[in-house]
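Progress against Task 2.4 (sequence-to-structure conversion) is shown through the following example record, which the project officer requested during the mid-term review.
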Amino acid sequence: MVQQGENTGRHAAGADTAGRQGSPPAEGLCDLLTMIDELGDRQRNVSVHDIREEIGERSFGPFLLVPAVIEMSPIGGIPGLPTALAVIISLFAVQILFGAQNLWLPQFVEKRTIDGKRLKSAMDTMMPVARFIDRFLKPRLKWLTKPPWVQVAAGLSILICCTVPPLELIPFASTAPMGAIALFGLSLMARDGLLTVIAGLVSLSAIYLVYTVLLGG
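Structure tokens generated for the chain above:
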């Protein structure tokens, strides 16, 4: 269960920090999921802050990708979690939109935790899909992964996040818009501009679908 509180499973701070400093940057979805999987294996409860520390500040991509992937995993079925993750993504995306260099979250968000075993199990479930996706990733059209296109991706991510709360009325329906955000995050991380284009098309399709289904009747 996602809960608010201090991380009760945190191990020795010195060893933990040393491990993160020595970690190579994630180069694909498998690398990122492995980092989170190992975090869930080490700790009984994993906080948002722990995940932020684990992935580091190497690029903006993981900050969009990780919450979206968590929502798309079996954990996404927890009531209220998709909306909470959409709020986290929105907070990151707003800062990216306005050109922030270091992303920030309020303390009450940073302290939100999830059971480590449940997180690890979710990442293990997503790993085969991650391996398949990583086969197609490569740096191309890199100019589409730089400003002002990064800001365009952030703006679309904010719009998509607005569709998540009403979609919670339909089980797992928020997976589609979160998939678009995950593509944006992955494209920025892999410097794959073609994936940025695909993410943009998926985003616009998701926004239109939500409008027609929930608002257009």
